[in-house]
Structure to design on (113 residues):
């Protein structure tokens, strides 16, 4: 059985915002952090990650600055902005409401209809 789950449409931005809210990270570090906090159940493809980082930075939800990675290479580090913090809170609330609605639907029995 495959231990990896498919990422639902529209959730990558929220996961990136959460990852960088925990600490500033370089691009590949964001990918590793999401894998770590998902206990390796989510695998983000680099081809999806970097366009999302660019998009989030363009929207002002994350900011970046150049630094040095653990292996002494130049790397762009991302951090959450105040606008990004607000966006993460909004998206988290929306996600939790939607998850509650879907869970309620899945618990429905014929007697309730």
């Amino acid at each position: 059985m495959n231990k990896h789950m498919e990422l639902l449409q529209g959730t990558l931005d929220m996961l990136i915002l959460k990852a960088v809210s925990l600490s500033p990270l370089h691009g590949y570090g964001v990918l590793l952090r999401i894998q770590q906090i998902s206990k390796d159940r989510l695998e983000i493809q680099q081809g999806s990650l970097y366009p999302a980082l660019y998009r989030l930075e363009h929207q002002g939800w994350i900011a970046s600055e150049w630094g040095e990675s653990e292996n002494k290479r130049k790397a762009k580090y991302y951090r959450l902005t105040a606008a990004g913090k607000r966006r993460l809170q909004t998206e988290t609330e929306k996600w939790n409401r939607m998850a509650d609605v879907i869970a309620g639907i899945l618990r429905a029995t014929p007697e309730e209809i």
The chain has one domain: 12-112. Residues 82-107 form the longest helix (26 residues). The chain has a mean pLDDT of 92. The first strand starts at residue 25 and ends at 26.
